[in-house]
Amino acid sequence: MSYCDIAPDHPIHAPYHDAEYGFPVTDDARLNERLALEVFQAGLSWLIVLKKRPAFYKAFRGFAPEKVARFSTRDKARLMGDEGIIRNARKIDAVIENSRRIRALAKTHGSFSGWLSAQHPRPKDDWVKLFREHFLFMGGEVVGEFLMSTGYLPGAHAPSCPVYQQILALDPPWRRNTTTRCKTAKSR
Asked: For position 180, what pLDDT does the model report?
């Protein structure tokens, strides 16, 4: 069963599915948020992460990479005490360090979005290898979902899903790659 089958009419999944998942993202704070949420989701359900999303947004200061990159041990202690988020020290450390690395990439490419665009197109396995070289806590699922959710890889929506046509109209990066064909969306 695909996310397109599960999400409709669901109070939490539907808004994300209908207005965000698979839509192209170029804003670095939104990209950082999506990457962080995928890190926090590892080993858990996407529903848990979506329910905690407002608390994550507040705790991580809107995910602005320049703010999160400056988080200190005091901030980490604050996050570890925040019952509204997933309190996993390794994941929190990864999100903070990944924000620092995003800032470094932005210096050489103008933005994290610029770095992503400079790397595109490539197959998923190459993306996973690249992300493992540049970021922490990067497994195939984290990287794949991050890239599908932000429009760099196909597969977020089934071609029969009404949202699929909306995304096509926005000319996502994956569509500009003539060697990649969209596969049926999988379940989150």
From this structure: 42
